[in-house]
Amino acid sequence: MIEAFRDNGLNTLDHNAEINVSRLETILSSIYYQLNKRLPTTHQINVEQSIGLLLNFMVATYDSESHGKLTVFSMKAMLATMCGGKIVDKLRYIFSQISDSSGVMVFAKFDQFLREVLKLPTAVFEGPSFGYTEHSVRTCFPQQKKIMLNTFLDVLMADPPPQCLVWLPLMHRLANVENVFHPVECSYCRSESMMGFRYRCQQCHGYQLCQSCFWRGHANGPHSNQHQMKEHSSWKSPAKKLSHAISKSLGCVPIGEPPHPVFPEQAERPQELTHTVQPKPVANNMNDTMLMSSGAPTPTKRWNCSGTSHSTFEGRRCHCPAYKKKSDIRPVLYQVFD
After folding, report:
1. What's the chain's average pLDDT?
2. pLDDT band for position 26 (50/70/90)?
3. Contact 283/338 with Cβ under 8 angstroms?
4. How many CA atoms are closer than 13 Å to the CA of 210, on its beta-carbon side?
5. pLDDT confidence bin for 326, thresholds 50/70/90
6. How far apart (Å, rounded) are the C-alpha atoms in residues 98 and 327?
């Protein structure tokens, strides 16, 4: 997603800049076509249909007054939230968009982020529960203090998270288990297997429900909806369960792992890739030189430096020791051949 933003020049635009629907469609097209290139042939997606569905949803969510334009920040917030990936990586990117140069969160930018991202549950008629209010920021960070990256992640990845963002980790969990297969029979609908979440009763031995039956409140036999249920997002065979239990009893399994790694508090400096020159292959001998790709540029002039004029080679600076000592220039990323 970040690559698509950079390729379309969004990283150079102000957050409040507006883009029209046609440019938004171009951005979405580049995202889906690049995605299809990375997917195996058996998992190809319908690009045109995907572009149309997402474009219509974004316009209906962020352009309710039919102006035909969306802000850059609203588009970034929506795509970063909805795209696939680890939630910790997405929250790190969001924090980079709402923090200052010293790595401290700007409350006004976080408020703007909540305004934009909470339009997503509002678009699916969950506004009364998760819509934006003027107190939304304070429900996340009650105390006025400096919020660094790790504190930001601790709050938004807590269990439970802030009330206005309860839907965010749930959405990611649903996406992660969408294709998880459980070779277990549902105790209510008698389906031979389950997809997604699996729920096991803590009181009734062997009683398990698929996510569809559990969400609908179905129960039969001695089971009751008042019984405590445990949610499972993966399937482990009895042999793996036994192995895990033995390892845990022997202290081989870490307990109480943090929800995310601890990152440095310093602000991460973005890489400047605009003027990067790709390195050329270094030839070891004449035969290697002749075998180099014809697409790579080769020198047409030899390096010639008198030590006083410090002439340049195809517009590049002289690399002789005298000139380096004189001007103290930084190393460059390309290779000059003798």
Report:
1. 80
2. very high
3. no
4. 19
5. very low
6. 39
Confidence check: pLDDT of 165 > 80: yes
At residue 22, the 3 state secondary structure works out as: helix
Question: Which residues are within 8 A (CB) of 284 and not within 5 positions of it... i.e. 6 or more apart?
Answer: none
Other C-beta atoms lying within 10 Å of the C-beta of residue 282:
10
Residue range 43-69: mean pLDDT, rounded: 92
The residue type at 70: L
SS (H, E, C) 209-275: EEHHHHHCCCCCCCCCCCCCEEEECCCCCHHHHHHHHHHHHCCCCCCCCCCCCCCCCCCCCCCCCCC
Is residue 97 within 8 Å of residue 117, measured between CB atoms? Answer: no
Q: Determine the Cα–Cα distance for residues 332 and 67; give it in Å rounded to an integer.
A: 47
Strand, coil or helix: 208:
strand
Whether 163 contacts 157, CB under 8 Å: no
Instruction: State CA 266 to chain mean position distance.
Output: 20
Task: Flag whether pLDDT at 286 surpasses 50.
Answer: no
Q: Whole-angstrom Cα distance, residue 282 to residue 288? A: 9
Query: Percent of the chain beyond pLDDT 70?
Result: 72
Give pTM, 2 decimals.
0.67
What tokens does 229 get? 């249920």
Token pair for 310: 């410090």
Q: How far apart are CA 3 and CA 217, in angstroms?
A: 43
Name the residue among 305, 302, 296, 300 with its Cα closest to residue 338. 302
Tell me if residue 79 falls in helix, strand or coil: helix
